[in-house]
Amino acid sequence: MTRLTPYLSFPGTAREALTFYQEVFGGELVLNTFGEFGRDDGPAEAIAHGMLRGPVDLFASDAASGEPGVRLEGVLFALLGTAEPATLEEWFAALSDGGIDLDPLQARPWGDHDGQVTDRFGVRWLVGYQG
């Protein structure tokens, strides 16, 4: 099945970000450095390609010299109904750690639960579930 997988370019923090996301979501993390790929457009230890595969899939790298890092405006990653409510509550709390809780995860008048958080790496998440 084909599905969308976000690919983020971080300003030298890809290893830290992907490790954080693995701690939040679980899954398998594979990191390849610029040095391993024979690239010389950044530090050898920088991440040229990283993959988190699991309940939430993410790809990321460190931006090469002269390239911009992640700046998201008007974009949020939606985790609506993607796991059991207790798991989504845990994910929201973990993403909030060191981030900005924009709208607490809470019951809404229509009966669903949702909330928004911008994590410590500047990625905005919409987390929620029905009932």
Automatic annotation (TrEMBL):
<protein>
    <submittedName>
        <fullName>PhnB protein</fullName>
    </submittedName>
</protein>
<dbReference type="InterPro" id="IPR004360">
    <property type="entry name" value="Glyas_Fos-R_dOase_dom"/>
</dbReference>
<dbReference type="Pfam" id="PF00903">
    <property type="entry name" value="Glyoxalase"/>
</dbReference>
<dbReference type="InterPro" id="IPR029068">
    <property type="entry name" value="Glyas_Bleomycin-R_OHBP_Dase"/>
</dbReference>
<dbReference type="InterPro" id="IPR028973">
    <property type="entry name" value="PhnB-like"/>
</dbReference>
<feature type="domain" description="Glyoxalase/fosfomycin resistance/dioxygenase">
    <location>
        <begin position="11"/>
        <end position="125"/>
    </location>
</feature>
